[in-house]
Amino acid sequence: MSTTTPTDWNLRPAPRTAEEWIARAGAVAAVLATDAAARDRAGAAPHAEVRLLKDSGLVTLLGPAEHGGGGQNWITAYHVVREIAKADGSIGQLLGYHYLWNWAARLVGTREQWEHVEAEAARNRWFFGGAVNPRDKDVVVTEDGDDLVFTGRKTFSTGSRVSDVTVLEGVLDGTDRHVFAIVPSDSEGLTFHDDWDNIGQRLTESGSVTLDGVRTPWSSAAGYVDREFRPRVYNTLNVPTIQLVFVNFYLGIAAGALETAAAYTRTRTRPWLHGGHDRAVDEPYVVDTYGDLTAKLWAVEALADAVAVEGQHLHDDPDAVTEQTRGDFEVRVAAVKARATDVALEVTSRIFEVTGARSTTTAEGLDRFWRNIRTHTLHDPVAYKRREVGRWVLEGELPEPTWYS
Which residue, among 73, 255, 249, has the nearest Cα to 158 in the 3D structure? Predict the structure, then answer.
């Protein structure tokens, strides 16, 4: 991968406003786009790509400004994720997950815990990974004096080998209480397995991980005071927040697919020999398809932006979040997740109708957009998102906070 050096990024003025941060993301995306298809085929661990995110400062976007962070909010973060995903869906996912795991200390932890984590993360430009696959209930947490010991296995651990710190999750032995803790990714007993071999999102380092007696102090257990968890409704905002991350890298991938396809159509697609047109861009079905797909994408982008603003109101005043406001927000997230899934799948599959047979070569790599969307949209069934919306409309029913709602 060809990236600019840390010195090059340091010579540029540091972004200060949301618009400047989004522009910085666009500059990073331009670097990623130069060899995105080749890197997708190679499937190598994205060490250089994560270094680019660090050098450009994007990893500190949500961090406190007084400690070197960007001091931005989730509205900006979602736009940044979308911008990066236009060029590389895998890196967009990695960055979006990083933002969530960085913010997880604030979602779940005490003020003392999250202030410490956010300061250290911003100062050191930590990149976060997470071994928090909720469908795997085989990580047990035991007590050993003032330490907690995590033992078990997770099927997925996004970020794994390219992360500096990893969020762990397990169930405290003999209870139904979940424990979250942030540990260095090179902790003794933490073994990442190089077994992520899926058709899409190939550079997300989402393979399995073994936890063989990973130790961390009790004091690092997020939200626990004197070994008792102090719950807040805000704790449950992790799911709609990460689902909105999903939405935005889906939309970024779809936008990248459209932009890439349009460039191909303008320069390389041939008009149909019986259509009576000299240029592919004059073919009525080509013009109609691009107009149709763009209109659909713009519509769901507008909804995503509106929902992001609604979510930011909750993040701005965590102690005021109620079951009602949390539930209403989750319904809105469910609605945009359903639409983003459908539109992104349509865009990334239909671009071939307007690029032509020659665009399907491996070298072009246009299939990566569809493979990336198809792979991640299977994370949880979209029908259940529509169900949340339908039950809310018909009965005023709020989604029960779970690992997926």
Answer: 249
d(CA 279, CA 42): 35
Token pair belonging to 301: 């982008």
Same domain, 59 and 175: no
Any domain includes 105: yes
Domain endpoint, select from 172, 207, 229:
229
Query: Which domain range does residue 110 map to?
Result: 6-127
Say how many domains are in the chain: 3
Angle at alpha carbon of residue 309, lines to 319 and 295, rounded to 5°? 155
Question: Residue 353: which of 294, 295, 286 has the closest Cα?
Answer: 286
Cα–Cα dist 306/316, whole Å: 16
Query: DSSP secondary-structure letter at 166?
Result: E
User: Over its length of 405 residues, how does the chain's per-residue pLDDT go in tens digits?
Assistant: 655 555 588 888 889 999 999 999 999 999 999 999 999 999 999 999 999 999 999 999 999 999 999 999 999 999 999 999 999 999 999 999 999 999 999 999 999 999 999 999 999 999 999 998 777 678 999 999 999 999 999 999 999 999 999 999 999 999 989 999 999 999 999 999 989 999 999 999 999 999 999 999 999 999 999 999 999 999 999 999 999 999 999 999 999 999 999 999 999 999 999 988 999 999 999 999 999 999 999 999 999 999 999 999 999 999 999 999 999 999 999 999 999 999 999 999 999 999 999 999 999 999 999 999 999 999 999 999 999 999 999 999 999 999 899
Q: What gap in Å lies between CA 326 and CA 337, rounded to an integer?
A: 16
Kind and range of the H or E run holding 191:
strand 190-192
| Ranges assigned E (strand) in 66-156 | 128-131, 140-144, 147-154
Count of Cβ atoms closer than 10 Å to residue 69 Cβ: 21
Instruction: Return the half-sphere exposure (C-beta side, CA atoms, 13 A cut-off) of residue 87.
Output: 20
Cα–Cα distances in Å, from 251 out to 93, 369, 383? 12, 11, 19
Which H/E stretch holds residue 190? strand 190-192
Q: What are phi and psi of 158, to 5 degrees?
A: -65, 135
Spatial distance between the Cα atoms of 72 and 176, rounded to a whole number of angstroms = 36
| Residue 56 CA: distances (Å) to CA of 1, 9, 12, 120, 327 | 15, 6, 9, 18, 36
Q: Are residues 240 and 365 in the same domain?
A: yes
| CATH code of the domain covering residue 73 | 1.10.540.10
